[in-house]
Amino acid sequence: MPVDPRFHPVTGPHSLAVLAEAAGARAVGDAGRLLHGVAPLRSAGAGEVSFVDGRRNLEALRASKAGAVVLAETSLAALPEGAVALVSATPQLAFARVAALFHPAPAVAAGIHPSAVLAPDAELGEGCEVGPYAVIGAGAVLGARCVVGAHAVIGPGCRFGDDCRILASASVSHCVAGHRVTLHPGARVGQEGFGFAPTPQGRFVTLPQLGRVLLGDEVEVGANACIDRGTLDDTVIGDGTRIDNLVQIGHNVVTGRGCVLVSQVGISGSTVLGDYVTAAGQAGLAGHLKVGSRARIGAQAGVLTDIPEGMDVTGTPAIPLRDSLRASIHLRNIGARGGKSALAPSGPQRPDKTD
Amino acid sequence: MPVDPRFHPVTGPHSLAVLAEAAGARAVGDAGRLLHGVAPLRSAGAGEVSFVDGRRNLEALRASKAGAVVLAETSLAALPEGAVALVSATPQLAFARVAALFHPAPAVAAGIHPSAVLAPDAELGEGCEVGPYAVIGAGAVLGARCVVGAHAVIGPGCRFGDDCRILASASVSHCVAGHRVTLHPGARVGQEGFGFAPTPQGRFVTLPQLGRVLLGDEVEVGANACIDRGTLDDTVIGDGTRIDNLVQIGHNVVTGRGCVLVSQVGISGSTVLGDYVTAAGQAGLAGHLKVGSRARIGAQAGVLTDIPEGMDVTGTPAIPLRDSLRASIHLRNIGARGGKSALAPSGPQRPDKTD
Amino acid sequence: MPVDPRFHPVTGPHSLAVLAEAAGARAVGDAGRLLHGVAPLRSAGAGEVSFVDGRRNLEALRASKAGAVVLAETSLAALPEGAVALVSATPQLAFARVAALFHPAPAVAAGIHPSAVLAPDAELGEGCEVGPYAVIGAGAVLGARCVVGAHAVIGPGCRFGDDCRILASASVSHCVAGHRVTLHPGARVGQEGFGFAPTPQGRFVTLPQLGRVLLGDEVEVGANACIDRGTLDDTVIGDGTRIDNLVQIGHNVVTGRGCVLVSQVGISGSTVLGDYVTAAGQAGLAGHLKVGSRARIGAQAGVLTDIPEGMDVTGTPAIPLRDSLRASIHLRNIGARGGKSALAPSGPQRPDKTD
């Protein structure tokens, strides 16, 4: 079905030539063909652009009624008669640019809602948008064109670079962030970590949590996800890392750049991730571990030991993927008593960056 | 102990006859007996109504001092001397109606708090209650008798039917909802999903998330639960589906009617559930799966493959319940080296709709 | 690196003698030495205080350049030349007191922000601090020196003792709490539990949730954690219990004192915990269980049966730790086909109270 313009205003129509330029793709067919929007391959019509990524969708491509399709060179032969194409080595990325042309992200509406509470010494860069009931604390500093959503709370002393978004009902304290950082609704960044010690009488005494949270450029923190500040040193999230909804990051965790932490992942305190580590949904990592760059942690895995660079692990306790598959087959066979299981065989789900 | 009237104002007293009518139950004993409230079976007194559901509670029933008990016909023989009864084929449901008569849900207090921020073109049906600091965006439409709690944020263009509740600190955007929908405190509905693609240089580019969230009639979304909007098509939650606290629903998930997703469940993007699917606490479902109607997914299960209609599955990767029990017994025996385990044998927990 | 004074203002400098008194420790070396702050052992300089806890850090101690170290008697021999020491039987606790002297918790800034909405009959004890846009409902009662953060919502009739903190964007209803209770940002306490019953036609009817949440003295509820009120009786959290971020506590759960529930733990309704039960990250407990005092539940465990006092359990279904280790080794060997696994052997993570 077409994109709902009530929520996503549309621009255009645009010619195939214009789309090709935006997408960094090569137009195949009538470059003057006008397109009116984007839609999924199976429901798109003659005025709409779709995309296909990978060989498994060629059947869907042949059956599609889309007027234009973004695709790789190798899929071109399957393009239906009458459709035009945008050929790209990276179809998903090219399609994203087409979609963004039809539906540009809402412009930052510079201005401060009269109900927002800004400390007298808070500094906002040019062109910031601050929504109803946002609260910005003493000495906080925001760069240019930042968006602060309704009810967002930015604590004293926090610093954000340019083009950041602190969305509705998010709260952040004790934080220094780079550029183009996004905190999604309800994200909690900078609060006290879970640090306390027992007295001999069995009471718990909180250990002062005197660190901060450092967020690199382009970090995104998902809805209702939580990142605790450090105890003495900082909790550090590297450039480009993406954290999904309901993730928990404990105090003094450090990640490299480009890590992907899917929803409901939990990382215990002081664990260090290299670059481009991915953890699939609901995985859990114990504390004080080292996970090497490009390691991939499977969904629901329980990581209790250091992981070398580039290794795939799964299960609890997490073991190398190949070994885990043998163990799963063993258990499956025991369960089905040598007969066929009622479910298709499967392997553990690799973490996907996107659907 | 009696219900605290400071939080739950009480009406009455009510006669057994009145309760029987409210409950759709048959009175047994003096229909004029006055009852003053509800209480659990083990602590109820002569003026209070309890209920018993199922055979395992007959001992508790015999020992109870409750003045009146809602129960099934088959339990009547165990009713203590001096107590009266309300006989029903569905005791829990009948008791719910009795409880609601003593403690009616707070009436909607029609009115808009002066601090609420309503866009000029927002439309509210008759009798809506809008609390302090609620924010309702441009073009949003609410039906009659909706409750919007303190600090709730309803984004531009959202539409809700009649008798909806968007409770304290919840936020919703890009959403079209039916009647009698409830978003519990801190629920996050309609935000961007976790969709991005890597560039050849290793940066992540967000894919525009141009869908919506559609919530059917009587859908409930738990406290701090998250539902992401779709990428192109919508994320769809079918009529009557109940989603517990801290659940994550990824973009483009589709559920049928009457699904039950217990707390901390996670469903990855584009997975489709039929009707009346139940997933017990902390279960996780991979993306792009199909789960047939009336399937039951055990607590902490990791579903990595399609599930046929009506099947019970558990474990990670999830396998049919019967097979999983054999595998668990195998592991338990290895663990206990043939001796008795120190814990009682158990089976995986079936998802309960309620306690 | 030194603690960032923009977020954590510092007092001092303080002499070793003063620190010894604050810490309840014995000074070793020049009692007049001035110290300026705290830092981790590996990065501290001559003006800073660190601590070392346990034998595994003696190498780090010898290499440290810290001016002063809090340590146990047994570590004293490894203290570098030129450093002074604070000797304590409980080094972590003593160091916490030193840290708190340098960085006292922010004083409560008594006063009510003009934008806060207080019901006319809400009662606040002396010296309370109420932040922007906080909402305090009819008949609510707060003790002395309570802190209510920006956008916090305290529902009608709630009662809190002295020195409580209800932090930014938290919401609480139907709750009676003791002294020194903390709700961290986004915590959700007192909302309706997940209680409903199916009608014969397949619709769900909510069961009135007529209980409350009772929080004992010094209870802490983590960021975005959720505690549902009881159905008839109450949900009860015992004195000193600490609940980490994103934890789910179902209706009618009862805990004893001093329990520790690490992040993303889920406890289903009506389960009862004794005193000093610890559950590590992402553990899940089924409903209607009894867990004995001092039981320890491993990370990601799935508890489906009662647990005796003092037992360590892990796995799903949770079994005694010792048995689980044998089963894990069995699976590991199958997976690695008798060869060496590519990962170091590990045992399941015991729940730590702190990092």
UniProtKB/TrEMBL annotation, chains A, B, C:
Keyword Lipid biosynthesis: yes
Active-site residues from the entry: H251 (proton acceptor)
Catalytic activity: a UDP-3-O-[(3R)-3-hydroxyacyl]-alpha-D-glucosamine + a (3R)-hydroxyacyl-[ACP] = a UDP-2-N,3-O-bis[(3R)-3-hydroxyacyl]-alpha-D-glucosamine + holo-[ACP] + H(+)
UDP-3-O-[3-hydroxymyristoyl] glucosamine N-acyltransferase non-repeat region domain segment(s): 35-101
GO molecular function: UDP-3-O-[(3R)-3-hydroxyacyl]-glucosamine N-acyltransferase activity
Listed pathway(s): Bacterial outer membrane biogenesis; LPS lipid A biosynthesis
EC number: 2.3.1.191
Residue ranges the record marks as coiled coil: none
Signal peptide: none
Record keywords: Acyltransferase, Lipid A biosynthesis, Lipid biosynthesis, Lipid metabolism, Repeat, Transferase
PANTHER family listed in its UniProt record: UDP-3-O-ACYLGLUCOSAMINE N-ACYLTRANSFERASE, UDP-3-O-ACYLGLUCOSAMINE N-ACYLTRANSFERASE 1, MITOCHONDRIAL-RELATED
Purpose of the protein: Catalyzes the N-acylation of UDP-3-O-acylglucosamine using 3-hydroxyacyl-ACP as the acyl donor. Is involved in the biosynthesis of lipid A, a phosphorylated glycolipid that anchors the lipopolysaccharide to the outer membrane of the cell.
Family, as annotated: Belongs to the transferase hexapeptide repeat family. LpxD subfamily.
Record's subunit section: Homotrimer.
Stated name of the protein: UDP-3-O-acylglucosamine N-acyltransferase
Species assigned in the record: Roseomonas haemaphysalidis
Gene that encodes the chain: lpxD
